[in-house]
Amino acid sequence: MTEEDDRLFRLATWTISEILKKKSGGQVIDRIFMSSVLHDLQKLKNESSLDQKQLAGASIIVSARVVLPRLSLNEKAEVCQFYKEGLFLLTTFEGLPDFRWKTIEPLFHMYLEAIPQCETAIMARDFFNLLVWILEKLAISPTVCEDLYSFRSCITIGRVFHNVLEIMGKPNLDLILRKTAVSFLARIIRQCPPGGAPAVSLFVSGLLGGLTKIMTQKTTNASVITDLLAIFKNAVLLTFSNGAEKFDQSKINLEDYPPEMHYVFKNQNEEWKEARAGHIKHYLEKLLALFVIHRNDGVRFEMCEVVIEIQEQCGEVIGEELYGILLSMHMHLKYDDFEKFRQISEHCLALVDSKRIRDDFFYKQLDLQITRLPVETRSGQGNRSLSVLAALLDGLGPNIRLMCTSGSQTMELLLRSLADSIEINLKQLMIIGDAPLNSVSEAMQRYKLMHNINSSQVECVCEMLAKHGGIEIIAMVQQLMREESPKKQSTYHVLLGHLLGALNPEKIPSDDPIVVMLAEYMIKETNRSCLIRILDDSKPHTTDNEMDVDMIIESLSLINLALCMRFTKKNANRTHNSGISLVFWTNRHTDIPFFQISTECLCTILIQTNSKVWIVREAAAFALKVIAVDSDQDITELISMYSSHILNRVSVACSSSINYHLAPVLMIAYLQNGRVSYQFDVIKVIVEKMLYALDMNKQKYTYALLRALNEFMCALNKDYPDHQPLPPIEDQEEDQKHRPTPQHIIVEKILLRTKHMLSTDHLPVQLICLELLKGGLELLKHHDDMLLPMIHQNWAGLMSIAGRKDPNSFVLMLDVVVFMAELSGDFVHNKILKELYPLVEANYRELMSRGLSKNTPSYESAKKTIKSIPRLIVYSKMAEEDAKKTYYTVLDESDVVYSPLTIYRDAEKYKMDQYFESGEISFT
User: Per its UniProt record, what InterPro entries does this chain match (predicted)?
Assistant: First the structure.
């Protein structure tokens, strides 16, 4: 080598010599000196050959044994870059003769031991980076790398583990420094060759314990936890996997190793080998408790991967030790929000191939969860606990039915625990959406639960109970419900609704005694709890706005009753379709026939469609929808199928001295949901019975009867629009008049029997009679022989309403009079001109004398008067002169100063001016 060629080597050796001279003379190695040297090295490095670089780099690395012990911590920091340059110059350690791990070990050890002493994070990171560069050179130097992981050098591995864990155990250190340390530790494990596993295994217990301690610190960053979990996994797989080389003490000659190694070797005895699986299990249990439910998905996923891969690859050592952890992971992840975790859950369960262990685990955890559930619910952990419970029930599978059939105390405690944990939030019931309910699940979700419990989690638990417990679980809930207070009964009704919704009726025999007993019980309880709130004329009208437990029970009972009907409808439909209407097919376990049970259910639900409580009314409407959808019919077809039986109950109630008040309620519900034309003859008889009751009951339940008659009138107009009279009989020459139909006749009877009620002082009755009159006139409009007498006979009642000047009834009265004028024309001309006008004028003047406020009954009455005047004039064919002397003067009143009414008055006055000029007017 020429003098020109060895400049890089001479600079390296000169630098080492200068450093030693300076230290011998008591001088400090400063940054200026090292910067100058590094500058020269960089310059010569680009001009030197590969051999010269190798030689210079080796000389720098070898000098560490002599130089570094003499340097202070700060001086080591200054020369750190000098040693990095030495590593850069070396392509690989393999190219140098006799270059082994012992050659580079001093450099590695000096900086490794210096790291915990560093005063700044920057200095410590620089030292770590130097060690990483050493590892990178080892990665491409197999021989030297094997030296590092041999028994002779294994103390270095132990010191790496100790120092890195010491740094990681200080949460106040710089995060970047801690991540650098983690990266360095991960590389030490990852770079270990298969033959080095026994050396690492000497210290792996301490490593795993240290990693666990660090990860369980509350201040540890989530990304750091993820990296440490990966290190934990790789360390276990390296040393304990099925194909890994294991430590064999019999092959070790202690005399070949330093005395400090003897204790380490002797400690790896058979007792330790047997306990190592237990150690891993212990560490994983601690980690699992924190990380399987961690808020960071990356941490959760890495935790799952650790357990699964250790079980799969270390089965010979681990055996069944991790089965409990795998089952615990399955329990927590079975109903996770993310699909990948649900797949991991199934993978965990598949790894546990012992049914005995699975069953023992699930039974033990079920008992534990039953005890914990109420407490965890009230601490805000209810949703997670319910998901765990559902997973346990699914894991037990067929054992659930066995426990239900045998009346197991565990199942009873489970149901009681659920009832104690679930509580309906009455305040949140008022916060609901307007979207229609399309499923049982949506209906149950409207009953918001306390403690932030999600109804879907309760539904999931009930699905598992129904899937594996069958109809027997229903019997247990029914039995427990009977013994509880109303508040607790509401909770059982929630459970019962979810359970009935989850059961498949096709898989349950229709003659199952539990089905019949359940239907009977639900009918009885629903009829008992769902109080019939009918407006009694003798009592004040009140409206229930505040929710209470009884209302909740009533609404839930209706939904559950509809779900019960799913189990009886098969035989009920079969009975009905066979043409049998009076003789029912009777179940062998009970004297109540299936179709009778279904009819009882339907009647109970129909009655509650008229409840004054909105939540009960909505529940009844949804229950009807459930039954109809389940029968592949719409609601009208469903009611029609049961029409003869429903109307029979109405007819019987009409004749009852006790329950006759139920007749109008059930009649209204039938007419609102069915078709009057299907059973007109039967309904006509019922209407006549109601008219008789209307005459005889001395004002009690008058309003309910009138509502039923009004609903009947609306149904007639709906089913018989523009109803025409029958043509004259051809062979009767004397009487050529059109004949009334049965519909005309029954309407006439109703109007004749209710006309006197227009004069009542009771406002609700007065208003319903006005609606009834208008509906009756609509049906009679094409038969003048009945229409005109009805107008004449009801006129006096209308005038009595006009004379009272009540703004509520006055508005509706004007509607009826305008409708009479539209139908009869000049028949009511004189009545409108001479009888009605003075009352309208007096009422209007009195209203104008007040200070009217918008959106009040008085304001609406005044507005209705203004808007009705043109129609009264036109429909009654009033002459212009008469109109301008009477009604027109109301529109022309100069004292109308209330601006909104002035707008209406001017608009209607303009219409009349145009009508008097052209003879045409539009009331569009």
Answer: ARM-type_fold, TELO2-interacting_protein_1, TPR_TTI1_C
